[in-house]
């Protein structure tokens, strides 16, 4: 039986925080900051503050998100800097999602400023661009900001299409358009390909998505690991079977613990154990693409009594340093500093697939370093897992 060809829209707000701030300022009688070099940051008075959004004119000058305000001001001394308004952003996001949901109830919110909708049974392929245009225009007219709409037969191609020319545009990326529209793009433009992976691919002579689509998967596995190689190769060829998930999967929790060969009372030894446990837990939720909203800690004493505590994180997170930091705070509150400990454990819960960490307006300047550390850790773990799987695959035939 032939599988029905899908029609998926990916709707992405153009420079969301900047646009939403501009809408509010215009409503209050101020000028449109989208037309000049401008940025949103946590604290405009603090030059160490991190940029969370930039206008198109600012981006053309080379100003990017995650840059310190001080660096942006060196590029453009007349830069307009406004402070983010989280409550207002949530209102804008809710309005945006409500309009998208009116076009299809099969909606998956990917982040605060983007979502997928499955339009397979809502319009025909030759009508899709016109319907997307109406959706785009309705958001602009009713809410005052612009979006890009990408259209494709799956979520990957729809998202890739929405990243084409901005702002306020509709783009298609059907299977027959992949070679023309997607293959000439640089490998960094492919979803989930980061800077370090790009460097490896470029060193191997793989510079475009088209190059990546045609390289041998076995060769690619030696560069990035078996699992990621297969995913990248599939994506480069436009293959993605993932569904538009209308609901977050059932609530889950992840935990890990460490039992010591002998009871510990040295804070440095205990902290080292907590670090290892936090690394393990954080790696598992990143692997499954979750963010955690709650961190819990428990310690077990030599008499097998247990003390535990949990706390909510400021934002859902998958960053090891954040999870470890919360565990350390709780440990300082529940341990008396002298009683020997037999076991320590860390858990995370209140999980979500919605990656809201990108919305933080007061992000720790070291967060980029923490995420890069996590990426390297995951890469090493992935290679170790691939090596074990390869050994198993080589061994299995002889065992039969």
Give an account of the 3D structure.
The chain has 400 residues and is α+β, with helices and mostly antiparallel strands. The chain is built from 14 helices and 12 strands. A 5-stranded mixed β-sheet has the order 5-6-1-7-8. It has a 4-stranded antiparallel β-sheet with strand order 9-12-10-11, with helices on one face. A hairpin with a 4-residue loop joins strand 10 (291-301) and strand 11. Helix 4 (86-103) packs antiparallel against helix 5 (128-143), helix 12 crosses helix 13 (320-334) and helix 12 packs across helix 14. The longest helix has 33 residues, at 367-399.
User: What average pLDDT do the residues reach?
Assistant: 87
Determine the N-to-C terminus distance. 34 Å
- Helix/strand-derived category reads alpha+beta
Q: What is the C-alpha radius of gyration, as a whole number of Å?
A: 24 Å
Number of helices: 14
Element order, helices and strands?
EHEEHHEHEEHEHEHHHHHEHEEHEH
Bulk shape: globular
Q: What fraction strand?
A: 15-25%
Number of E strands: 12
- Oligomerization status of the protein chains: single chain
Largest sheet: 5 strands, mixed
